[in-house]
Input
Amino acid sequence: MTVWQRQMLFLKDADPKGPNYFVLRDGFEGTPTEPTQLNLWFLAKSMQRESNLFHYDGQCLVDMDVFVNTSTTFEPNTDKYGPTQEPYRRLMGFDPQFHPDGKLQETQLLLRIQQPPGRGYMVVLYPRLKEGEPPATFARLSENVVKVETPVSTDYAFLSPSRFSFNDEKVEFDGMAASVRYCRSGKVSVSNAEGRARFVVAGTLIEGSGGFVVTLDRGKVSKQTYGEGATVKVEE
Output
């Protein structure tokens, strides 16, 4: 039997106009016997690819950048779905700039990634305004870890259906689903979403279970737990 588990992190900025994006992870356990697919649809006019980064020119005022962290070697299938003629009318009128060729229609573009039995997926879905919001940069650190550089922070996202360990020059982590955000202001935010977790960040040991957030800001430490049974302790 195949056990499929989907995890998602939603990384939000304190400013609603700041970077707000998703990290999606699909994992498979048990005894997988069949290949799988990840299908993502986008309301967009066109797509441009640069290696594992896909940029979608959104039909409205927002574009979408998709970074495929896992798998590293794949040939995506792409397709398009939409009407061949104007399918409806609006009594209140419409703005032609939001519709392909000025026609009243919605065109969806498909990104399909396929994996052999048991292999998972990890992607970053990074929406941004067409004007005034610069792109992020993405780096694959491991099958379960991606680093996202935004205008306001450097973010580490960790996702796996089972516990794993990771470390580099900035962070040590052991857990399942979490993030560490290094803000340009110097503040560091550590979040855990599920399971037990251990972090070493900025010389500080953080251990806990369940949902919690720890903020390190110029010598001050604040912490908060979410959900029944969640715990966290901080040792400097």
